[in-house]
Write a structure and sequence with these properties.
heterodimer, A: alpha+beta, Arc Repressor Mutant, subunit A, 15 helices, 17 strands, 39% helix, 21% strand, elongated, B: alpha/beta, Amidase signature (AS) enzymes, 37% helix, globular
Chain lengths: 478, 461
């Protein structure tokens, strides 16, 4: 028996705009008191009419370019009819027949192309807060612009699905179209999944499940794992195969790590789409599209290529730098006056990003001018690399005077002093020195550390090592 | 008294704003008792609002009535439905903003959510025709027409989705104008069929209608279907020579003999004025009513979804097993005609029926639009009766929705294609009024009103 999992993803991205999709309420609602971002339009009051947010259209065009879509000059909004308390008008304004972006794709690391059917604009719903016996609604989220990106079902493992999702995440963030902060619900996944099972020369397909509203990469992966297993078990037990109309909708319970049945297609809604009469079909002129695209200074993949080809940075390191637009921008800014690009990239990836992650900082905590001074001082061997690292950390965490810090760590060139310190350290650690000579090489690190400490860090450990080796040769080896 | 006369009296200080309010409100209570033309009489609201007010707009202090499906902040806006019985709108419709500091006498009664042609389907009782209280005033803007013909207001703003301004104007011997779709903002009009709805004017004469249109016309960025065109002065008469007017070929059935006769008389009048006449036999116009009653209910079915009992309407004070049980309970309180149209619309949009109904109807609508474009290359105006019958009796058609729908036979095409159309009163027949409908080219309300002015004076010679 051979089993192939087939996955398609619908990704909802909240677009970065000042105002909501169809009204002038602020779209930046996170942590604000419930129901403070509302007006007759997004509350669906009788007689109120929607007006399209131009910025959201511009953002959709930019995503169109970044994900290799056709950007359609003719586009339209439709009404998707279903009733639920979080949908104030009783219909959602979305794009059904004529989305802005169609037929895009991305390429995975393996070289495999994943086609993306479409990306369309729509409005978010209100937030339901379920309590025992009653439900409260917060309308702040209602009407926030969403872009729904719908892939073709071409991913055949959770790894591919994750790579695809991650790529969308990175690409969209890189051009500043959304922050995709999943904790704030700015990016959500619906997973469409079923299995293709080869058994006794025949191919069986299991019924498709759509797992709704996954809000992290991790829960997406776990849901795929769980659901593949569940479908396999169900197939073996009941033998039900894919038919028209037997798709089911499932939810994900993160605490139980299980998907659960929500509804099947028979009872699921017929959305009765029809053209939104309040918004005439619109034409995106060539100029409008070009103006929108001119807001993109560089795409993530172009940034990556340029790091590798122009700056000669290894692809692993370059990958990490383009993961965040801020990192890339930082690299470019520093590179204007600091030309040791590979060294710079290593410092960013191994030191700066580590500090950022450890202390939850932004890269803006690293002052560009101070950082350049620091790198130059290290390159000129005024201070040691390890002193440099110490200063960097201090610099990012505290308000310091960089010149002073560098001065404090200037390498001591008093050879007599160094040699006498080394002599003293070796003498007072005779036992350890003997062990080192007997082959315990790890002891060298300790000895170096002692010397560096005694020198108050104002020496390059590599130089210390050389000098210890000389001293050992001279006075300890026979 | 017309608007111009009252304006002059106000300006000459022959009458003060507060005297106007005293006179008109006093009359309003009396007339309302007899006809039930208002859902609310807004005396407190208006007196407060006009305190210390000065002449600042074309219609300052002029008494007017607004159909109760048009939002005005500070008043109750019911749309004629019990679902919105206590609904206080937090904002004002653009067209009402544009009227400035007129004297709002009351909110006119209507068929619930404007679904109807007789003002019998209101959640707040039937409105009677003041000219003959056994008759309907027409609808759905029947309350507005009744108020204006009773002299409680000099003008009224209604809404016209398939004839809801022109038909009641015709039944009450008034002028009713449905402007081009997109000329006047829909922002704040409680939607019925969004791609058909327009605000419209009811007044006693053409000049007053033009004056009101001057106030309410114009682009509104809050309504994406409103069109940004150069502003016109509709009170200036256009001297049109060499007019060519199309006469709509009368359908074989459905038009009463009185109406056919009245229309013949109007046609003769045009000949007398040396206007070129040509009979127009449209190929697709006979489908108008059928597709109207597919497309409008479809849009209605979505527009009504927001009245779910959660934020509006009857919030049932008990617990339910499921949200759908809750909806069933809350939405069972809709008026019958509302339920009927929501169900038709839900059906025609459903999977498996969409292509046969909604899609097909849209295609025919486009055919009719194209046909109108072609026909209007050759003619300047198209004339027809406004309604196929004289005002009917209260109760006569309530049991037979289809015959009620037929009242819109001549008015619906203008909404399907978005063209402007006006109804001006014919001479009385058997003490009842009927109307002559003139349809013009899109955004040529200036020419339409000029011709109407000419005809109005001739018709009543």
């Amino acid at each position: 028996m051979e089993i192939k999992v087939i996955i398609g993803l619908e990704i909802h991205v909240q677009l970065k705009t000042n105002t909501k999709m169809f009204c002038s309420c602020s779209a930046k609602y996170f942590n604000d008191s419930p129901n403070t971002h509302l007006c007759p339009v997004c509350l669906g009051l009788p007689g109120a009419l929607p007006v399209v947010n131009k910025k959201a259209v511009i953002q959709a065009i930019k995503v169109g370019k970044a994900l290799n879509f056709n950007i359609n000059s003719k586009s339209r909004f439709d009404r998707k009819n279903y009733m639920y308390p979080d949908l104030f008008k009783g219909y959602q304004i979305t794009q059904f027949e004529f989305p802005i972006d169609t037929d895009g794709y991305i390429v995975l690391k393996s070289g495999k192309k994943i086609n993306i059917y479409r990306a369309h604009l729509e409005e978010d719903t209100a937030k339901s807060l379920h309590h025992k016996g009653y439900t409260l609604l917060d309308g702040n989220k209602a009407g926030v612009p969403l872009l729904e990106i719908v892939s073709s079902p071409e991913m055949f493992s959770k790894e591919e699905a994750k790579e695809y999702a991650k790529k969308i995440y990175n690409v969209v963030r890189f051009i500043g179209v959304s922050d995709c902060d999943m904790e704030k619900g700015q990016m959500r996944f619906d997973v469409n999944i079923n299995l293709e099972i080869k058994k006794e020369g025949k191919i069986f397909k299991t019924p498709i499940s759509e797992i709704k509203n996954l809000n992290s990469f991790r829960s997406m992966e776990r849901a795929i794992d769980y659901e593949s297993q569940r479908q396999l078990e169900e197939f073996e037990k009941k033998g039900i195969v894919l038919e028209k109309g037997n798709k089911t909708t499932r939810g994900w319970n993160d605490n139980l790590s299980k998907t659960f049945f929500q509804r099947d297609k028979e009872e699921s809604d017929d959305y009765r789409y029809f053209p939104e009469p309040d918004l005439p079909p619109f034409i995106l002129t060539e100029k409008f599209i070009q103006d929108a695209l001119s807001e993109i200074d560089i795409l993530q993949e172009d940034a990556l290529v340029s790091l590798i080809q122009e700056y000669r940075i290894s692809s692993d390191i370059a990958d990490l730098i383009v993961e965040e637009r801020d990192y890339y921008d930082f690299f470019i800014k520093v590179s204007k006056s600091y030309k040791e690009y590979v060294n710079l990239s290593n410092w960013i990836v191994t030191e700066i990003i580590a500090i950022i992650k450890e202390y939850s900082l932004e890269i803006s905590s690293c002052d560009i001018h101070d950082f350049i001074k620091l790198l130059n001082s290290i390159d000129e061997k005024k201070i040691s690399v390890s002193s440099g690292k110490e200063i960097l950390k201090k610099m990012m965490l505290e308000d310091i005077n960089i010149e002073k810090e560098i001065d404090n760590k200037l390498i001591d060139t008093d050879l007599n002093k160094i040699e006498s310190i080394i002599k003293n350290i070796l003498e007072s650690n005779k036992d350890l020195v003997q062990k080192y000579l007997d082959g315990k090489e790890g002891i060298m690190g300790f000895l170096i550390g002692q010397v560096v400490k005694e020198m108050k860090g104002r020496i390059d450990p590599i130089e210390v090592k050389e000098k210890i080796l000389i001293e050992l040769d001279k006075n300890y080896r026979n | 008294m017309n608007i111009a006369e009252l304006k002059k009296n106000i300006k000459d200080k022959k009458i003060s704003p507060s005297e106007i309010l005293d006179i008109y409100f006093k009359k309003a209570y009396v007339v309302n008792k007899d006809t039930n033309c208002f859902i609310s009489i807004t005396e407190d609201y208006t007196r407060k609002r006009l305190q210390n007010s000065k002449i600042e707009s074309e219609l300052s202090f002029i008494p007017g009535v607004i159909k109760d499906n048009i939002n005005i902040k500070g008043t109750i806006t019911t749309a004629g439905s019990r679902i919105l019985e206590n609904y206080k709108s937090p904002y004002t419709a653009t067209v009402v903003e544009k009227l400035g500091n007129f004297s709002l006498i009351g909110k006119g009664n209507l068929d619930a959510f404007a679904f109807g042609s007789s003002t019998e389907n209101s959640g707040f009782g039937v409105t009677k025709n003041p000219l003959d209280t056994s008759k309907v005033p027409g609808g759905s803007s029947g309350g507005v027409a009744a108020a204006v013909v009773s002299g409680v207001s000099l003008f009224g703003i209604g809404t016209d989705t398939g004839g809801s301004v022109r038909q009641p104007a015709s039944f009450c011997g008034l002028v009713g104008l449905k402007p081009t779709y997109g000329l006047c903002s829909r922002f704040g009009l409680i939607a019925m069929g969004s791609s058909f709805d327009v605000p419209g004017i009811i007044a006693t004469n053409v000049s007053d209608t033009a004056l009101v249109l001057n106030s309410i016309a114009g682009f509104d960025k809050k309504d994406s279907t409103s069109i940004n065109i150069e502003k016109k002065d509709y009170t200036k008469l256009k001297d049109d020579s060499k007019l060519k007017v199309g006469i709509l070929k009368m359908p074989k059935d459905g038009v009463s003999t009185e109406i056919a006769k009245a229309f013949d008389d109007s046609v003769k009048l045009f000949s007398k004025l040396n206007i070129d006449l040509v009979e127009i036999d449209f190929k697709y116009i006979s489908y108008s009513l059928a597709i109207y009653y597919i497309l409008v209910p479809a849009e209605i079915s979505a527009n009504m979804s927001r009245y779910d009992g959660i934020r509006f309407g009857f919030h049932p004070d008990k617990n339910f097993e499921s949200i759908s049980d809750f909806y069933k309970d809350a939405r069972s309180k809709f008026e019958d005609e509302v339920k009927r149209r929501v169900m038709i619309g839900t059906y025609t949009l459903s999977q498996g029926y969409y292509d046969a109904y909604y899609n097909k109807a849209t295609q025919i609508r486009n055919l009719i639009k194209n046909e109108f474009k072609e026909v209007f290359k050759d003619i300047d105006f198209l004339i027809s009766p406004t309604t196929p019958t004289l005002p009917f009796n209260i109760g006569e058609k309530t049991k037979d929705p289809l015959s009620m729908y037929l009242s819109d036979l001549f008015t619906v095409p203008a909404n399907l294609v978005g063209y402007p159309a006006i109804s001006i009163p014919n001479k009385k027949i058997d003490n009842l009024y009927s109307g002559l409908q003139i349809m013009g080219r899109p955004f040529e309300e200036d020419r339409l009103l000029s011709l109407s002015y000419l005809i109005e004076n001739q018709l009543w010679k």
